[in-house]
Amino acid sequence: MDTLKGLLESLVRGLGNGSVYALLALGFVIIYKATRVISFAQPAFMICGAVAVSHLAGVTGFYAAVLISVAGVAALALAVERAAIRPMVGRPVFVVAIITLGVDVVLRVIVNGFIGRDVRQVGDPWGFRTVHLAGIGVQQRHLAMLAAAVVVLLAVFAFFRHTRYGLAMRAAAYDQEAALAQGVSVGMVFALSWALAGGLAAIAGTFVGTGQGVDQLTWIIALKALPAIILGGLDSLGGAVAGGLAVGVAESLVQAYQQQLAPWLGQNFAVVSPYVVMLVVLLVRPYGLFGTREVERV
Amino acid sequence: MNRRHLAATVAALVLLPISACGVFRGGGGEGEGKGGAPAAPGVTKEPCPQAVDKAKGCIYLGTISDLTSGPFAALAVPITDAQKAFWKRVNAAGGIGGKYEVDVQTYVRDNKYNPEVHNQVYQEIKGKVLGLAQTLGSPTTAAIIADLRAQRIVSAPASWTSAWEFEDVIIETGSNYCVEAMNSVDYAAEAHKARKVMAVHYAGDYGADAAAGAKAAAEAGKLEFSAVETPSGATEQGRAIDEIVKGKPDVVILTTGPADAAAVIGQSAARGFRGRFIGTGPTWNPALLKSPAAPAIKALYEQSAPGLPYGADTPGHRAMRQALGNVTPNDGYTSGWAWAYPMKAALEKMVAGGNVGRAGLLAAVKSLTTVDYEGMLPPEAGNFAADPNTAVFRQTLINKVDEKAPTGVSVARDFFTGPTARAYRLDGPCFNKL
């Protein structure tokens, strides 16, 4: 019974953390689908969101701070796209990806000034409080992460399916030139994808900061979205979510059981486990679980 | 986007933080060789740039610290500021032997807690300084130790690994992590009746040194012992927390940074763990009292420390507080200030002996049997003349969380040596024995 309880607790923790990875991964995929570029600026947007909440929560309360932060980071992403990315349209995507790396570094240096040297708390209402559901101890913040991710993901999927802009973005992702010919503003699609990704990163950052706060090294967690997107398939929104959750659950289970089951793997195999899962999946499915097969004629 | 390009970029992104954590160590530096360095580098007849008395010469000391983005920046900046204040006070009081003032402002470099960066900035300044007033971190200093030895550059470390006991050029102050953890386990066995000990520690000669000390004490006291190595990063503590909750030790000896300590303590308590935590000095930061982990920290945590906290009532502490003026109290100041006393004593002895230079300074260090810490530490903490096993200082303190104290902790048990540390024969760095 204790074994089952431990397993379920690990699963819930993994799903909680995994939903944060899913939000981050979704941002990567949205930009990739629209522009064919992996935006490495996502870690910076994530930290910007969390730090904005940490400064605002004391003034406006936590929930209002999250809304303001999401809007602010979306606007920031929009500005970055307009200033640094739009002028590069037509250039090789690798060049644009490197520019996003530069954007990431610049933004993080700036936001570090707002973090300072101590850990900043995001002022969330959950802390480390735990609830017991059917005998299983679950941290409230993990439930909140999961719930928020579900709501946000449903909203994003509804946006793509049922709104004009969503349709425009899907059309542009499918075939930019055809979409242009049909009157879709591809520039608007680029901008919207960046804004959406920025907003998602801000929510993810806030949840990363719950309980343990944010410091100058917190951005590294955003890199866990990379195995998630490759695992799920670079151009699949559903794949990003599945990849994020899979990474979270794999990590949590490895943390809990690897030492008992495979101690020869060393003490901290959990740290690399997302990448191992990614490699195993890629061996079987080179385009990820849900990615589109690329057909190249040579 | 080309998938091969993507893979390369992902690899670069993954390797960057690993490298920043010091997994890949730089070489020890090649040194300048015979005749490469001037006779007395870092010593000038000209006054210091900010001299109190322009008739005196200047001794330049370098500082390599974690000043911006590394995990110990919250401690490192106060350490560095305290040392600037310390040497300003020394200069105002007549300098070294009435002949020299000391400059620690000109050659201050940021290591970002990265051994490669540490080595790089060290190479930049080593020809211009007599010694190092501060070299922060164990893995970072390990990257330059061979060159420090070769060039005979006396350096004050900002870390407490037991490896420094075996280095002539390193003038450490206070007990090392190994002894500190031994005393913590002995204290926990006595005060909390602990029978089961778990060391949760970073890899390398910070965490592993303490874990080795805890292991030695557990073996000596016939206690059950386990060690859990954990990576840095508050979000990476899941496994350590799992091990604590499952293993249910009576006491956890914690050797991490403050943010990770809060994550471990807070989440372990949230999952029902009710044992004790004793964290080494660097696990504490008063900001933790504002974190969601605060209730758990207040209930379960004590801090082991190599010296008295900021608010202590000794002449050294009073002088420090007066020199610093109106600052937010932080024990980084206390450590930085205390670490400067052996360098001051050695410089005074060197100038008095007339052999001003690196060899003279090293000879002066090797002749110090006591150092006047103005009450911050017992004088015998400054024994650099004897062999490591004799010279090693074996007294530490235990602090308890005290919200009214300036740095959030006050002394629970004053300087003591536990039975394990008293009997322990230090014949090599502890971390090799984990």
Automatic annotation (TrEMBL), chain B:
<dbReference type="Pfam" id="PF13458">
    <property type="entry name" value="Peripla_BP_6"/>
</dbReference>
<dbReference type="InterPro" id="IPR028081">
    <property type="entry name" value="Leu-bd"/>
</dbReference>
<feature type="domain" description="Leucine-binding protein">
    <location>
        <begin position="59"/>
        <end position="377"/>
    </location>
</feature>
<feature type="signal peptide">
    <location>
        <begin position="1"/>
        <end position="20"/>
    </location>
</feature>
<protein>
    <submittedName>
        <fullName>ABC transporter substrate-binding protein</fullName>
    </submittedName>
</protein>
<comment type="similarity">
    <text>Belongs to the leucine-binding protein family.</text>
</comment>
<keyword id="KW-0732">Signal</keyword>
<dbReference type="InterPro" id="IPR028082">
    <property type="entry name" value="Peripla_BP_I"/>
</dbReference>
